Amino acid sequence: VQLVESGGGLVQPGGSLRFSCAASGSIFSINVMGWYRQAPGKQRDLVAAIASSASTNYADSVKGRFTISRDNAKNTVYLQMNSLKPEDTAVYYCYADAPAYGRIWGKGTQVTVSS
Fold first, then answer.
1. Cβ contacts of 57 within 8 Å, gap of 6 or more
2. 16-25: per-residue pLDDT in tens?
3. For 31, which of 2, 60, 78, 100 is 20 to 30 Å away at the CA?
4. What is the rounded end-to-end Cα distance, in angstroms, of the chain?
5. Alpha helices, DSSP H, located in 1-115
């Protein structure tokens, strides 16, 4: 069982990026999927999360700019990031909370917002 992330990279301030994260393997149910991020020298903080019911939770710093969504049939979560700022620069980690496995983490994807 693993999470496979795609997206990320270098973008100018004000630009957009889209992540996807797919759970592969024998996962029969996932409660919550989402993203954390960790900037150099800082702790890992929650960015956004979405439950299987589609209820969402966002960090205050990204509200109105980021949108999280998921496809339960594909065990995939998406993060649309708009109006990116230099302070959004970090390694972004996908996670999934699955009853049979606990919390599963992706390997992380670098996002750099710079002109």
1. 34, 46, 48, 49, 50
2. 999 999 998 7
3. 60
4. 38
5. none
